[in-house]
Amino acid sequence: MSSGRAKAHGLILACAVAVGGGFSVAKTGQLPGWTHYVNARWGFCIDYPSGWKGSEAKDGSGVMLYPYPSRGPNSGPYISISGTPDQPDVDNANVVLDDSPPLDLEGNFRRALENLRKYDHASDIRVLERRTLEFQGYEALSTKFLYETGSNATQVADETLWINREYIIFTATLWGTPRQVDALKAAYREIVEHRFKLICGGKR
What we know:
By secondary structure, this protein is an alpha+beta fold. The protein has a single domain (3-197), classed as 3-Layer(aba) Sandwich (Protein Transport Mog1p, Chain A). The chain has 3 helices and 11 strands, in the order H-E-E-E-E-E-E-H-E-E-E-E-H-E. The strands form 2 sheets. A 7-stranded antiparallel sheet has the order 4-5-6-10-9-8-7. The protein has a 4-stranded antiparallel sheet with strand order 1-2-3-11. The longest helix has 17 residues, at 178-194.
């Protein structure tokens, strides 16, 4: 993925910052046709279709899932699931400033839109949904928006579930062109709603 898009998600989508070539923490799950991933850093886990490619962030903050691995590791569409400390004033998600006041979920969302404009030169940003809810007992925010980017003004769709688990901000994002996102909505909802656990194996 482009460095601009990685910076645009900044603190919130740490998984998109640097993706490793390997995927040593993934293993085949008990369910046929699914691969099980456990995140050692934050203690969450997911199952995803075995035919997809999974790449863990170098800092261990999360995982990028590519449903069409033959297209290459840096092309969309993708689903990203990651967590990062809620520190609003740090451009590098690996650095934590303990005296920085945490942002709420709305603040994180606004920061993401600001970073899209700043780093990815996004234009014509249209927020289609901004809805608060509860996810596995934690405060959450569901957002959907469209924007244009690049010299050809390519339209991009982003659907993200933001979750605040004790000042760790988790995001589950579906990203691609509007057509790609529409084609993957059912898979995204299956993974997020039924195969994603914020606390796996009793870790908090």
